[in-house]
Amino acid sequence: MSEATTPASRHHLGGDRSIGFVVLSVSDTHTAEDDPSGHLARDLLQQAGHKVLHYDLVANSVADVRDKLDPYLKEIPVEAVLTVGGTGVSSRDLTVSALEAMGGRRLEGFGDLYRSLSFQEVGPLAMLSRASLFLVRDKPVFALPGSERAVRTALEKLVLPAIQHLIEELER
Fold first, then answer.
1. Angle at 164 between CA 8 and CA 161, to 5 degrees
2. Does the model's pTM come out above 0.85?
3. Rounded to an integer, what distance in angstroms lies between the CA atom of residue 65 and that of residue 35?
4. How many CA atoms lie within 13 A of 113 on its CB side?
5. Helices marked H in 25-159 — which ranges?
6. How far is CA 26 from CA 23, 35, 64, 143, in A?
7. What is the pLDDT of residues 49-81, one digit of tens each?
8. Measuring CA to CA, which residue among 67, 110, 87 is closest to residue 27?
9. Which domains are assigned to the chain?
């Protein structure tokens, strides 16, 4: 058995703690009723035993993202945030800019790993993703691309396996 699957290392792979999440979809084209990627994120988090405390959809603007996230990040039960959408290279993809404007500190490894995994699925177009992980008010905010494939890849291969350990590190 590899170290990654031993019981002693379980806390490094997500553990058993239920984390309180916010899911914020960022889109100019979807509605809360027609948001397959946001709904997938919610479902995957809940299936993994986590709580989705809030789900919202906002327009792709720095002000809208900031104004919606700001009060959530002040709530004690909120421990982590997933944003879905707004991480591409077009002039309308503003999620990353919003998180930077909120004073977010970028953790480089997440985006690097996501693009590496994405490259295996979509080839060189993966370099166009600005998927990122920020710490905003000492809470992790994952900025995920808006496709269902991207949400599934990021959650199953990166977020869910590491979230408990990340939260524990931030609480130290």
1. 75
2. yes
3. 16
4. 14
5. 36-47, 62-74, 95-101, 108-122, 148-154
6. 10, 10, 9, 10
7. 999 999 999 999 999 999 999 999 999 999 999
8. 87
9. 17-168 (3.40.980.10)
